[in-house]
Write the structure tokens for this entry.
Amino acid sequence: MQKIALVCVGKLKEKFYADAVAEYCKRLSRFAQVTVRELPERRTLAEEGELILKELRGYTIVLAVEGKKLSSPALAEKVKELCDAGREMTFVIGSSCGLDERVKRAADFLLSFSDMTFPHQLMRVILCEQIYRAFMINAGSEYHK
């Protein structure tokens, strides 16, 4: 089964965000084994970066404002290529203060969702939904329309 890890700095404090992430992880469980690794916030990005770097496995996609923007079908194609190659995927969301440059350099792909700024906790929900959408697109489902 496909392995996907979400490495996130900080905890989801709002129950409705945690419930939404849990729901998308449950939906994804028919396609992949999903793990969410919550790392503690530290005083510096360098300290957080050390923790993140220890968690990277397989193909690493880091969310970064300067990353490449993809449509949902384009993300689905990237996910399909990685699944077809049997590659484990790690998606990284840094803290609300950003990411250590070493983490960005360690990434296989920098992904940006928008030029807009989103609440940090909401971004985890959006990422989970888009990963689920990618699998649904690849399964030929009408979900994504």
The first strand starts at residue 2 and ends at 9. The chain has a mean pLDDT of 95. The beta strands are 2-9, 32-39, 59-69, 89-93, 109-112.
